[in-house]
Amino acid sequence: MENFSIEQLKAKAKVVRRHIVEMTGAAASGHPGGSLSATEILVALYFNLMDHNPQDPHWPDRDRCILSKGHASPALYSVLSEAGYFDPSTLKDFRKFGSPLQGHPDRRKLPGVEASTGSLGQGLSMGIGMALARRLDKKNYYTYVVTSDGEMNEGQTWEAAAMAAHHKVDHLIAFLDYNKFQLDDATRVICDMEPVIKKWESFCWHVQEIDGHDLKAILNAVEKAKKVKDRPAMIVAHTIKGKGVSFMEGNNHYHGVAPTPAEVEKALKELT
Amino acid sequence: MEKKYGKPTRDAYGETIVEIGKANPNVVVLDADLSKSTKSYAFSQVFPERFLNVGIQEANLVGVASGLASCGKIPFISSFASFLVCKGFDQFRMGVAFSELNVKVVGSHGGITVGEDGASQMSIEDVALMTSLPGFVVMVPSDEVETRALVLEAVHYPAPVYIRTGRPKAPIIHKAATPFKIGKGVRMREGKDLTIIANGFLVFEALCAAEKLAEDDGIQASVIDMHTVKPLDAELILEEAKKTGHVVVAEEHQIWGGLGSAVATLLARKHPCKVGFVAIQDTYAESGQPEELLEKYNLTSPYIVKTAKKILGR
Predict the structure, then answer these.
(1) Is B314 a member of any domain?
(2) Domain boundary pick from B139, B171, B203
(3) pLDDT tens per residue, range B170-187
(4) For domain A6-270, which architecture applies?
(5) Testing the interface with A: which of B47, B71, B74 to mutate, by most A Cβ within 10 A?
(6) B58 is annotated as an active-site residue
(7) Which of A3, A143, A156, B163 makes the best surface tag, with the fewest CB within 10 Å?
(8) Range of B42's domain?
């Protein structure tokens, strides 16, 4: 795919946010908050950074992206449809019976979904497997994993963190969509993982800290991360849950509650 | 029946996986710091670049295997059955079963014949857990010959596979020429009065029990080595049940959710008949010699004989 400019990416992020609001609204369920926080990360990956081909989703040399925080599926589906994996009109069937757009990503049902996720903390391990396959096959693709702050609670995340560093797994670039909330409340209330940067550094990862809504910063960070040899890279992206919709921003009510029809209307007015 | 010990089934796995590695460059082997016990170590010495020891992290092990399989590799992963199955269970569920990925799982130290190490190391729940995962093939081979054949079969089988191996030496009961097929039981002995269906170490005990029943009471028992619990060989079981009308199932596993449950479910649906169960009776075992433990937990041939006579009303 051709690489989008920053302005084009910004416009695409807005389109994606509109989809997220509309599809969760139409489904009357889903997770808008964490989808809106991950929007720029996914838009930058699929419209600029990743080498992939929507016409050939199983192309062996493609870059891979695992949405480890599977509940942000509305963001992934919107991005995949905008990238050409399927027609955006399908988005209205999100979470409906018979739709390939399952509540959480299902690799069996939707081409473009690299990994079935939804049980938190597993994407990093799967990404390590893909990166190791790359090493064995002497290919050049990158594996991206988008994780959440809730997943930092999971023990498996730290198993993967230790093992990937020990085995010098590179071509593996993880994002932490660090919106500071998990389902029940703010991470500082439930299970604070600070100091997050120091944790990843102490696990010997290459660590960068960016504004996760700054597209230029995302592109720059990935360019740096791609140059890292013999260790994995973590990009801690500070984000705002519900970003782009004023009444959702920082409001954890919208973690797993869809906007009402009136709220959809209000949100879409803001996203023009 | 003469007891002639062969290798432990875990040793047979270790040797076979090296053979497979030579023939199939897509096979990769992973372990969680127990490779010298699971015997995957042999592979690491021949193919170091295709072997990965992840450390003591079973959940991550399964996730990494999922990622490798999604890129076309055929990962064989091993650890003790108790740790691998219990600690990796959600990862098997999400990354292998639900994802329909081609991962081969070998859990060693199955059952209570682990012996001296005690109950924490003994897997008595693995068959129940792994058969509960949609699409998973679950096998409990009885000796080195069968283990080798089934591991070779597993490579080409287009589904996730779980194979339980054991720690101690296993009595040899099969000939190398015996054809083995995933999902097909092996009839070891033919009888008209009773069918004993067993797997793992209990196949040898079942053969001893059948001999004893014939000698002492003139009861002619069929013995089936049902190495594959899932998919279950319904055809063979129903053929036997229709012929003998009396079935005893014997396994080195917790009575809930093992081979006995699978056979009973099939018979309840298709051919209700008298069924007896020789299994671990909803308890954990303890340290001791394998033979002592099989005796204490009622898994030896006299208990199979007793159960058979009970359902036969003799």
Answers:
(1) no
(2) B171
(3) 999 999 889 999 999 999
(4) 3-Layer(aba) Sandwich (3.40)
(5) B71
(6) yes
(7) A3
(8) 5-171
